[in-house]
Amino acid sequence: AQKVTQAQTEISVVEKEDVTLDCVYETRDTTYYLFWYKQPPSGELVFLIRRNSFDEQNEISGRYSWNFQKSTSSFNFTITASQVVDSAVYFCALRAYTGGFKTIFGAGTRLFVKA
Amino acid sequence: EAGVTQFPSHSVIEKGQTVTLRCDPISGHDNLYWYRRVMGKEIKFLLHFVKESKQDESGMPNNRFLAERTGGTYSTLKVQPAELEDSGVYFCASSSTGGRYEQYFGPGTRLTVT
User: Fold this and answer.
1) What is the pLDDT of residues B36-47, one digit of tens each?
2) Under an 8 A CB cutoff, do A102 and B102 touch?
3) Per-residue confidence (pLDDT) for residue B20, from 0 to 100
4) Alpha-carbon gap, residue A40 to A109, rounded angstroms
5) What is the pLDDT of residues B52-91, one digit of tens each?
6) Where are the beta strands (DSSP E) in chain B?
7) Tell me, what DSSP letter sits at residue A70?
8) A70-105 per-residue burial string, b: 16 or more CB within 10 A, e: under 16
9) A102/B101 touch (CB, cutoff 8 Å), yes or no
10) Which of B33, B35, B110 lies closest to A43 in CB terms?
């Protein structure tokens, strides 16, 4: 079975704080892709990052960074120096051959960044 | 290259009415997926087309939902009759056969049933 777990339902931080969103996944496939999406109040899904199962290098993009650890099946997302505009729901997602490549989303973590 | 487009962007209908959502995938993409996020819950898979054929419709909630993809191009998702719990955001995504790990999402249609 494939599953994505985002244990944090809501997180509230004050602007400029760092915040880490947790994601744990399950799959038996050896080849798979992991994603993070942002859903702002306007509703659209904004693609943030894709990571394939063979690439465990961490990635940094501006204030965003991702920590992929296959040993713990985790793909955590950190926002450094958070801003009010970061307030949104963030979804971690998995895609693999088993399951026909449909996207399996986590439940999402709602992030509130207060000024 | 145009991305995935969805129409309308927002629809407000009354309970019992019918609504049809449309998705235009990226040109040449054989795979088309429908997802939805209702009532602030997780985003869930509805169904998957390969060209005009339904590959997987295991996520369709009930027979009030009908998806079609005539000619293997655009797809429609009809809800008839709509219920209050159908309110949410409906997303469409497409991918090519060779790049099934890459799915490109549309902007979504926000459906409000009153």
Assistant:
1) 998 778 899 999
2) no
3) 98
4) 12
5) 999 999 999 999 999 999 888 999 999 999 999 999 999 9
6) 5-7, 10-13, 19-24, 31-38, 43-50, 53-56, 65-68, 75-79, 88-95, 104-105, 109-113
7) G
8) eeebbbbbbbeebeeebbbbbbbbbbbeebbbbbbb
9) no
10) B110
